[in-house]
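for the record, two folds in this file. i put them one after another cuz i was lazy. first one right below, seq on top, structure tokens after. the second one comes after a little note so u can tell where it starts
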Amino acid sequence: MARLLHYAAHPAPSSSQANRAMLRVVRGLEGITQVDLYAEYPRYDIDIAEEQARLLAHDVIVLQFPLFWYSCPALVKEWLDLVWEHGFAYGQGGDKLKGKTLLLAVTTGGPQEAYSAEGYQHFELRTFLTPFEQTARLAQMRFLAPYVFHGALKRDPAAHALGFGTLLGALRDERLDLRAAETTDILTHDTLPLIGIN
């Protein structure tokens, strides 16, 4: 059984149906450590030692956030900058996250077709998430395809939230085909590569 650490980071969660629905599902799962970054650090006074201890104690790190200006909300970047420091996540002696898995759970306001060369965003979503993928690579972690909910402002999030619970449960119980999850573009509630139970 893998040890999961789930970080939620939405500066205004009450305004997001999708992120609230995902959080409700996570809170109903056993064996998953859940942290709301904005609730824990409203003034951005991040406890680096505490956060590094959390990371060390878990196998899978899940970062849930809405896409803001083609990246993450500000507190996620601050958290990464301070916690994933030289000598811890990378650089000389910085192999503390080696072998761990990173998964992003991202919601977007725009529809899926917007994220293509022909769409109004002009790039695939994975292009905007490249810094996270490279961060995982530098930290010697496994980077899974992001779990994505496009058009979150106008769509019912129920199936997506349930799928998120299924995904986290499969990661916890080691029933997710990690190789397939690494090589696909994005994961959605109906494209989860689950390993059957014998």
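(here's the note) second protein begins now
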Amino acid sequence: MQTKVILSEEEKITIGNTNFFSVKREIISKITNLLGEIGNNKMLNKSWKNILINEQEKTFEPKISKGENYLGLPYLILDFPKKFEDENQFAVRSFFWWGNYLATFLLISGKDLEKFLPVILSNYSMLIDKEIFVSLNHDRWIHSIDSDYFSLIKNISSDEFETMIKKSGYLKLATILPLEKIENAGDYFIKQHLFFQKIAT
């Protein structure tokens, strides 16, 4: 039985670094506040209500979630607007993933997919003009944007795109903002909301 704790030099330095946790709390607080501002943005709220007509008010109530272990790392999520009714879903998810990136996801399934997919297909040229990713996976809750789970839309044809979405039963689009550009996060999240609104109308 081993009774010793053997640490590398890096681990020894890290275990004595209490300042890290106060810095982390400050970062999480700042990003939480930013997500709160996005979720309470009156302009976005009004424009989403014009697109998602007759939805319940709770659809437009922002929800911020956080955790410490998405693939081993802390994260923050803003869902706004949000509708999760079994297979009938419509949500925009703003995502911060420690050590990786910020991202915005548009998720649509069920009756909303039937309604919005023809509109989005008619705006396909807008999708291939930007660095927009589409989920390739059967699991719509994967947020790791890599080649195993997502593809750039500009790398596939509109027919392939349509076939893939209809086969999977959901649409999940994604964009990324690198962490080195985090000072632009507010503008980024708002612009992504506006872009998703544009392709859905």
